[in-house]
From TrEMBL:
Function: Catalyzes the phosphorylation of pyruvate to phosphoenolpyruvate.
Protein's recorded name: Phosphoenolpyruvate synthase
Top-level taxonomic group: Archaea
Domain PEP-utilising enzyme mobile intervals: 365-435
Domain Pyruvate phosphate dikinase AMP/ATP-binding per the UniProt entry, residue ranges: 15-317
Composition bias type Polar residues, residue spans: 451-460
All residue ranges annotated as the PEP-utilising enzyme C-terminal domain in the record: 467-752
Pfam families attached to this UniProt entry: PEP-utilizers, PEP-utilizers_C, PPDK_N
Reaction(s) this enzyme catalyzes, per UniProt: pyruvate + ATP + H2O = phosphoenolpyruvate + AMP + phosphate + 2 H(+)
InterPro entries hit by this protein: ATP_grasp_subdomain_1, PEP-util_enz_mobile_dom, PEP_synth, PEP_util_AS, PEP_util_C, PEP_util_CS, Phosphohistidine_dom_sf, PPDK_AMP/ATP-bd
GO MF, one example: pyruvate, water dikinase activity
Pathway(s) it belongs to: Carbohydrate biosynthesis; gluconeogenesis
ATP-binding keyword on record: yes
Length: 762
């Protein structure tokens, strides 16, 4: 049969009634107050797509990369067209309309999607499919097809991919339920949704519950301590709008709440007591915590839905947030920019992105903070990329808040003023435990300052305590994707981030990329990559080397056919000489730096490669100014990779640079006339050769006279003897590969302790 009434449905019928339908049938069978309803079964949907011959096209259309926003949008549109534009078989139409006619009085109904992979113990699929309220007989069949089509919304496709559910294995039923013209409505959690604490949370607003579920309104919040059997807190929100049925059109519309009711408490003690009692009964029946939607009309409470809470963390330590920071480490309340409900735990610092419409979600990059008026399930793909979520409206039980907890994305909900207080590109810290947003540039406070006075800090890599050294031990990062692992070593910053890897990953030369996508796209590609590393290390410094790819590497890329043919590319068209010869491409690189500076990433340091003399530097500084970067206000420096730059170090220091960094790989081969890629003479290659070491010592001593910082980032930096020699001479920092950080820290500390002992003995 195409339809089944709730009286014939229970939790054993998920395959035919879907999660929502099965749950409602179970609640009704348990004697709980559920409005009358029937289910258009999942078999009906499956028969529809197969008999109409659209199944193959449908599943092919939604087989897309879920991280590709454009592909998701196209898949959703195509799936909707296939389903909505196809007629339901006449026998099925007749059965559905006959069931509707069994309701008394030709009522309005709610048409609710009920997927077979929905409301499961380990995946909520919250808000993935559509619900249509106040539907009459004339529009019923169309709304059912739109529910079927909503099985393939962008958010549903994305979520199933993330959860590992094959699209062709998921069917959808539709619940057709007599409307409750609610005066009051909301959601109830029978346990705390993050910690599982024995407290019932109820959120309530005026009118239909869609306003609470969608996050369109910040609801009242009531908590009931199940152990103490008493109301613990009552938070009355300002409820400016409500969703109601328009008497003339029958459609669901948003109306302004009367001034005298906006700050009025929605639920009285008797209604709260009844909801608490129902919550206890529902959890006892299912033997697990539940998320319940409810409505009240004419003094009667009705249950509209119940599903398992899937976001409770069994390992939650209440003294810590989800990212390992103690709650007490958060900034003082005087630092708070906006506050709201802590809907999902964790503390994250990132760049705020104000999202007013869904088409603005593309500007949300990895680690950004989404700031929006209200949360919607369509934001799920962007939320996966985001570091945190902040909203003006919504509550603990809104669908997007549920998904935030499921994704592990910290969230502050119902702040009221976030979109007007925060600005695009502002650096903020979101504390999902305390429900506050603070300035991201402020250092978190500690209880007594003892950590700041400690002689060692915890090594994030799990390898014990990080030795405190006067010489900074930094790390080399080849690609932005490695930033998180590199930051976890406890390194003092990034000594070398290579821009050429960002370009090579596009598989196009810069000129070809600009020709295909435009200058702004190229700048954004560099910006996003650099920001990934800067974010992972902030506020530790990140030193980024401008483009230094030799012609043989560029020749392998699309557009590389015009690259010069060189007998020895390492001695050819690369480094600063390429940038000065092609200033327009160099300016695009500089624009990426400027963009990040404007975002607040003052920890970035700009480094020029393969410099020979002061003339190279003066020309580069002129281009920096043209690109809007003031060399006097930003940290910048040069690579010392040639004997020429080492011998001209005094002239280089007088250009006003802040640091120099040794590239010992190139410096060694150019000093010794040994091609490091030539196996025939590989045994002659020695970074510790007296000539190389003399150049290093002379440069460090001169830089100390000019108060210019010195660093080494070549392969030789990992060698204990090189560390000994350079720390002895007074180098400022040493940058090594990820796997060598701990050994370099220990070796530098050992040398420094020896120097201290020698000075004391003298």
């Amino acid at each position: 049969m195409p339809v089944a009434w709730l009286s014939a449905v229970s939790t054993s019928d998920v395959d035919s009634a879907g999660g929502k339908g099965a749950s409602l049938g179970e609640l009704r069978d348990a004697g709980l107050p559920v409005p009358p309803a029937f289910v258009v079964t999942a078999d009906t949907y499956r028969t529809f797509i197969e008999e109409a011959g659209i199944a193959e096209d449908l599943f092919e259309a939604v087989d897309v990369d879920s991280e590709d926003s454009a592909a998701l949008a196209e898949a959703e549109q195509r799936a909707r067209e296939l389903i909505v534009d196809t007629n339901i078989p006449e026998r099925v139409e007749s059965s559905i309309l006959a069931a509707y006619d069994d309701f008394d009085g030709d009522p309005f109904v709610a048409v609710r999607s009920s997927a077979t992979a929905e409301d499961l113990p380990d995946a909520s699929f919250a808000g993935q499919q559509e619900t249509f309220l106040n539907v009459d007989r004339e529009d019923l069949l169309d709304r059912i097809k739109r529910c079927w089509a909503s099985l393939f919304t962008q958010r549903a496709i994305y979520y199933r991919n993330e959860q590992g559910f094959a699209h062709e294995d998921v069917d959808i039923a539709v619940v057709v339920q007599r409307m409750v013209d609610a005066e009051k409505s909301g959601v109830m959690f029978t346990r705390h949704p993050s910690t599982g604490d024995p407290e019932i949370t109820v959120e309530a607003a005026w009118g239909l519950g869609e306003a609470v579920v969608s996050g369109a309104v910040s609801p009242d919040n009531y908590t009931y301590d199940r152990k103490a059997e008493s109301v613990e807190t009552v938070t009355v929100a300002t409820k400016k709008t409500k969703h109601v049925r328009d008497d003339e059109t029958g459609e669901t519309v948003e109306r302004t709440v009367a001034d005298d009711r906006q700050d009025e408490r929605v639920l009285d003690e008797g209604e709260l007591a009844e909801l608490h009692s129902l919550g206890e009964l529902i959890e006892d029946h299912y033997e697990q915590p539940q998320d319940v939607e409810w409505a009240i009309t004419e003094g009667n409470v009705y249950l509209l839905q119940s599903r398992p809470i899937t976001t409770i963390d069994d390992n939650v330590d209440e003294s810590r947030n989800g990212h390992g920071n103690t709650v007490d480490d958060a900034s003082d309340d005087s630092d708070v920019l906006v506050d709201g409900l802590g809907a999902s735990p964790g503390t994250v610092t990132g760049t705020a992105r104000i999202v007013g419409t869904l088409d603005q979600l593309d500007k949300v990059n990895q680690g950004d903070i989404i700031v929006t008026e209200m949360t919607t399930p369509d934001m799920v793909p962007a939320m996966k990329r985001a570091g945190a979520l902040v909203t003006d409206e919504g509550g603990m039980t809104s669908h997007a808040a549920i998904v935030s907890r499921e994704l592990g994305v910290p969230a502050v909900i119902g702040s009221e003023t976030a979109t007007s207080t925060l600005t695009d590109d502002q650096i903020v810290s979101v504390d999902g435990d305390r429900g506050v947003v603070v300035d991201g540039h402020r250092e978190p406070s500690t209880d007594d300052g003892s950590e700041a006075q400690s002689s060692a800090v915890t090594d994030q890599s799990g390898g014990g305590n990080k030795p405190m050294t006067a010489t900074d031990i930094k790390v080399n990062v080849s690609i932005p994707e490695a930033a998180e692992r590199a930051a976890a070593t406890g390194a003092d910053g990034v000594g070398l981030l290579r821009m050429e890897h960002m370009v090579l990953s596009t598989n196009k030369t810069p000129q070809q990329y600009v020709a295909d996508h435009g200058e702004e796209a190229f700048v954004n590609t560099l910006t996003d990559s650099m920001r990934t590393v800067a974010e992972a290390f902030y506020p530790r410094p990140v030193r980024v080397r401008t483009l230094d790819a030799p012609s043989d590497e560029f020749r392998q890329l699309e557009g590389g056919e015009d690259e010069p043919s060189e007998h020895n590319p390492m001695l050819g068209y690369r480094g600063i000489r390429r940038s000065l010869d092609d200033p327009e491409t160099f300016k695009l690189q500089l624009r990426a730096f400027r963009k990040l500076y404007e975002m607040g990433y003052d920890s970035l340091e700009l480094m020029l490669p393969l410099v020979n003399d002061a003339e190279d530097v003066h020309r580069a500084k002129s281009l920096m100014r043209e690109a809007g970067i003031d060399p006097a206000k930003r940290d910048w420096g040069v690579m010392v990779e040639t004997p020429a730059s080492a011998l001209c170090i005094e002239d280089l220091c007088e250009t006003g640079l802040d640091f120099v960094s040794f590239g010992t790989n190139d410096l060694t081969q150019y000093t010794l006339a040994v091609d490091r890629n030539n196996g025939t003479v590989a045994d002659r290659y020695d970074e510790l050769h007296p000539a190389v070491m003399r150049l290093l010592h002379d440069v460090i001593e001169t830089c100390r006279e000019y108060d210019v910082a010195t660093s080494i980032c070549g392969q030789a930096a990992s060698k204990p003897r090189m560390i000994q020699e350079l720390v002895d001479t007074g180098i400022t920092s040493i940058s090594v590969n990820v796997d060598a950080v701990q050994n370099a820290q220990k070796e530098a500390k050992r040398v420094e302790q020896r120097l201290i002992l020698e000075s004391v003995r003298d």
